[in-house]
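Worked Example 4.2. Consider the chain below.
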Amino acid sequence: MWMEIICGLVLYQLVRRFFSDDEFADVETSDSTALFSVAHRLEKLYGGKAFVGLRIPDADTSSRQDVDIVLVTKDEVFVVAVKNLSGIVTVASDGSWVCEGGKHHHTTETYPDPLAEVKKQASVLESYLEQRGVTLLEGNLSCKVVIPNPSFRTIHAFPSEVITYEEWQLMKPVSKSKLSGWVKGAFSTGKEMQESSHQKTNFILGTAPMWDRLELKSSKIVLGEFLEFKGKQEDTAALRNIKRSKVDRISIQKTSMFGLGNFSLELDIICLHLLSHSRV
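Applying the procedure from the previous section yields the following structure tokens:
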């Protein structure tokens, strides 16, 4: 009997994986993975370039605004917040979202109004672009909140800027000349950007501060902040001359239980502060 149950579970997982849509398969695994999954699909839907994990300087608060995704197309710039929420979500009178039975099951968690937050991020981004020489025309900057988690449930009607899981599933790639009314209403609202502004915006965002990323096997990605190398003194000696500003990517060729890369470093060679405080 137990063998039948086990075989049945294995068969169920194989069938589920075979028939599942790869674009939605990983959104429940981690919040960082959900960000990159959404960014990748936005690029497929609308073209352009998606910048993930930006940390835009905010002159008013002398701090940085964490921005999930900025999608730059030839028509517009979209500031996108990804809310990987599961469970039943209700909206409080102050606009905050109350999530029950989510990742921690029997807990209730409250999140500030995501739409208000992403509008604030868009304002900071617009000021940042202006400081670096790009002024967007009215209507060329818009905000969206995407909820890609299939376990999200709600009875509320959200503003058009909020893309629920059901709506997110239905969105299909379309050419500019064949924009459907629904898709156009969902994302495309502004005027066409000038080519020079488009190129300069891509350059600015490509050089803007952003969170470090650790890319693991199976295309899993973790966002965080690189702190330091740790290990035995003789192992880290070769790394002392590395300047962070000069390094764009570190590639690990080989790992083992006791080492990392070509160095016999301890497993805590790279420390990351995970973004648990800003991920849902």
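The two ends are 41 Å apart (CA to CA). The mean pLDDT is 75. Compare this with Example 4.1 before moving on.
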